[in-house]
Amino acid sequence: MRIKCPCCGKKATVYSRALTTDDVNSVYARCVNTECQRFDHSFVSHVAFSHWIDPKAAAMQMTLTHLFDQLPASDRMAMAAELSARV
Ligand SMILES: [Zn+2]
Fold first, then answer.
1. Where does the pLDDT of residue 20 fall: very low under 50, low under 70, confident under 90, or very high at 90 and above?
2. Average pLDDT, the chain
3. Which range marks the domain in which residue 32 is found?
4. Shortest CA distance to 20 belongs to which of 28, 29, 10, 32?
5. What is the pTM of this model?
6. What is the spatial distance between Cα 29 and Cα 16, in angstroms, rounded to a whole number?
7. For residue 36, how far is its CA from the centre of ligand 1 (angstroms)?
8. C-alpha Rg value of the chain to the nearest Å
């Protein structure tokens, strides 16, 4: 993944990331511009969740997952077995 260097505006390469919150990642990047590299211009940017590309599909997936997780363990196992039989 490459992002824009805040100093020169050229591409910077992400070399590490850390989860800051559930929706935000801190990405550690280093600029590929030789002038920036001379001064070791590494920086941290934040990448945050914005929105779903297909909200209906995401909502359906989240709802089904939530409902499945609310079932008693025996019902989850029975449902998993039934769904496996259909494949
Ligand atoms: Zn740069």
1. confident
2. 90
3. 2-48
4. 28
5. 0.60
6. 7
7. 5
8. 21
- From ligand 1's centre to the CA of 16, what distance in Å? 17
13 and 39 inside one domain? yes
Q: What is the pLDDT of residue 4?
A: 94
Whether residues 64 and 81 share a domain: the answer is yes
Whole-number Å distance, alpha carbon 49 to ligand 1 midpoint, is: 25
Ligand 1 centre from 30 Cα, in Å? 8
Domain shared by 32 and 9, yes or no: yes
CA–CA dist 24, 21 (Å, integer): 5
How far apart are the CA of 21 and the centre of ligand 1, in A? 27
Number of domains in the chain: 2
Residue 35: per-residue pLDDT = 92
